[in-house]
């Protein structure tokens, strides 16, 4: 948010982890992050890495240790749920841990995201169905099973 015109991360820069995420998926992601090449200054982010299975987490740490020797200028952020700080990945990377609290007000964060997710020419876009021509929307319901 410090650079409002900077684009949001691309699909290859973010790995959304779940218990079903495989070691192969994590390995491909870490290779993109840690093998030096001329891709610019990308910032790679693993979201919810604490949800990885134990086996996948072990393999991820091992691969990270092997690959980081080849690149000292990588930029990797691993986000975990603070309630699961004793799972494998947060424990393995604990020496790098930084507790973070959002520094910007909720309304400012929303405005920043609206700037990046607004479609400029909505005439031929499905974004016209969302409020203010957004290309991303959240549909929710307080009741389960109502077709959302």
Automatic annotation (TrEMBL):
Name of protein: RN213 ligase
Q: Which UniProt keywords apply?
A: Ligase
**Matches recorded under InterPro entries:** RNF213
Q: Which GO terms describe its biological process?
A: negative regulation of non-canonical Wnt signaling pathway; sprouting angiogenesis; ubiquitin-dependent protein catabolic process
GO MF terms on file? ATP hydrolysis activity; ligase activity; ubiquitin-protein transferase activity
The GO cellular component terms are: cytosol; membrane; nucleolus
